[in-house]
Design a protein that fits this description.
Blueprint: H1 2-13, E1 16-25, E2 30-41, E3 45-47, H2 49-59, H3 62-82, E4 89-92, H4 95-99, H5 103-114, E5 121-125, H6 129-132, H7 134-147, E6 150-156, H8 162-168, E7 173-176, H9 178-181, H10 188-203, E8 207-210, H11 216-225, E9 229-230, H12 241-251
Parallel strand pairs: 2-4, 4-5, 5-6, 6-7, 7-8, 8-9
Antiparallel strand pairs: 1-2, 1-9, 2-3
The structure holds guanosine-5'-monophosphate (G) (2 copies), sodium ion and manganese (II) ion (MN).
Residues 21, 36, 92, 154-155, 178, 211-214, 232-233, 238 line the site of one guanosine-5'-monophosphate.
Length: 252
């Protein structure tokens, strides 16, 4: 499979890009930007992230990918801060990253090197971090949180026994998976799931972001249900850095 070697070379050459998708509150405030990797293969064209992330995951290249994404995202955060744009950036990290010894320290060192305050970085994890070694994962996340890095629980509702995990993970934000959000306005069961998730998350003091918001009706329902922020094509798709800068400036 040549794709793995190509991906490794693309990371070394800096040919993998990050695009940024806003998370916005209902009053319009931009609460963060999620970094999403984009890779255009010289022969095959755009490779879907799901595809090459799975390859990185199964081949052991994931730590390298995450390191690349963190480095690129923090350099961008520093540039935005220099322009007076102080929006936090969220980076997706895999269970493998969270289990690798020294991960919390490496993140802290990287923040220091870029002179980015820890509160300007969010890490998006999934419940899968607790599958392998829950204690080590909890320790790593506690270390990151103690340093001031914000943790966000991604794809909520798609894992197993989510409630147990919520209590064990030091997260400050929960993202409701878009599979529950997409048909919220037309499906009563999905609406109930979202309502219960909001109740639960808020009772635990978490902020809630709804993913995959594509239309006004869904936006209004989420607002009326007391959701904190949304992410989705209705607001903006993931944008290249320059377009993101323009988007942020246009928002004031
Ligand atoms: O961006 P969509 O943009 O197509 O992303 C598809 C999947 O890839 C999502 O599950 C998303 O979380 C994941 N993904 C995107 N960028 C990254 C990244 O930098 N690291 C990891 N681990 N996953 C990512
Ligand atoms: O797993 P994660 O939540 O990180 O995945 C983010 C994925 O969702 C990316 O592939 C991103 O491009 C996609 N996405 C973002 N906004 C929307 C949306 O409004 N609708 C749909 N269908 N996908 C979206
Ligand atoms: Na994510
Ligand atoms: Mn998600």
């Amino acid at each position: 499979l040549g794709l793995l070697g190509d991906l490794r070379r693309a990371l070394d050459a800096g040919d993998v890009e990050l695009h940024y998708q806003p998370k916005v509150r209902f009053d319009g405030h931009v609460s963060g930007l999620e970094a999403l990797v984009r890779w255009v293969h010289p022969d095959r064209g755009r490779v879907p992230p799901d595809e090459f992330i799975a390859i990185a995951e199964s081949s052991g290249l994931m730590p390298r990918l995450t390191e690349y994404v963190l480095e690129t995202a923090l350099a961008q955060v520093a540039r935005w801060r220099a322009m007076g744009l102080e929006v936090p950036v969220a980076v997706n990290v895999s269970p493998r990253d969270v289990h690798s010894p020294g991960f919390a320290g490496a993140v802290a060192a990287r923040l220091a090197r870029h002179r980015v305050p820890p509160g300007a970085l969010q890490l998006e994890i999934t419940e899968h971090v607790l599958l392998e070694d829950p204690q080590r994962a909890a320790d790593t996340l506690a270390g990151l949180t103690a340093h001031g890095v914000k943790m966000s629980l991604d794809d909520f509702g798609t894992g197993y026994s989510s409630l147990v995990h919520l209590r064990r993970l030091p997260v400050s934000e929960l993202k409701i998976d878009r599979s529950f959000v997409a048909r919220l306005a037309v499906d009563n069961e999905d609406a109930e799931i979202v309502r219960c998730t909001l109740d639960l998350a808020h009772s635990l003091g978490l902020l809630v972001v709804a993913e995959g918001v594509e239309d006004d009706e869904t936006w209004e329902r989420l607002r009326d249900l007391g959701c904190d922020a949304v992410q989705g094509w209705l607001v903006a798709a993931a944008m290249p850095p320059d377009e993101t800068t323009a988007w942020l400036r246009a928002r004031g």
